[in-house]
Amino acid sequence: MSTLTLHETRAGMDAASAGFGHTLHAEWIKLWSVRSTWWTMIALVVLGAGLTTLICWGNAEWLASSDADEAPGAFITWGMMIAQVCAVIIGTLAVTSEYGSGMIRTSFAAVPRRGSVFLAKAVVVCGVLFVVGTLTALLGYLGGNHFLAREGIGLPLEGDVARAMYGCGLFLAALGLLSMAVGFLVRHTAAAISIVLATVFVIGNMVMLIPGQLGEWITKLMPGNAASALVAPVSFNPDALGAWTGFGVMLAEVAALCAAAWWLLGRRDA
What we know:
With about 270 residues, the chain is mostly helical.
């Protein structure tokens, strides 16, 4: 009897694994079958790599002069600050586009365990944004460092510079996951994108107006600010949290939001 139970357990695990594999494949197809995904990815690469190259070209001579009050490393991933808008859009649309079309009901009918759908979307969105974000940062580095090297201030791809490359990928992946969680919570494209962009770009800067150490710490802990040191060899903000400490804070915030979205997902009608 114990042998039979063991075989049944293994068969059940194999079936569950295969089931999640199908769900993962379906989410991959759904993400890339939407035209907006392609345009947003193109915009991410153009903004991330293009703006980094442009800003390095325009400031290389100044950065090499004695008048410069910023380090070249602060500019080598500059375009990724703008490209994060595209990560927000990708993460949001991966969820809200299905709610808008009603396709989410079909997804949940095919996969009754809604947590599997959530997890599959998270794996696909985070994986894609990590790869695209890292490659975009590398393209920006190659373009921008060309102009820095001409002025004798080129940066070798090692140490904090190398960390910033995959740090950009990690940051965009976390931002996409945060946007995905907000998408599940509000289930509306414009509202979700507005909430995330307002939190990252507007509220994240406005809280610094709060006087005293309270304002300083709230500013450091805001999602968009916490991991800012991870995405650049030298941060524009000397008071920012350390690269990995800040990213850990951001991950904790994203995890809390995902937990809330996961909980509500199983308790609300599609």
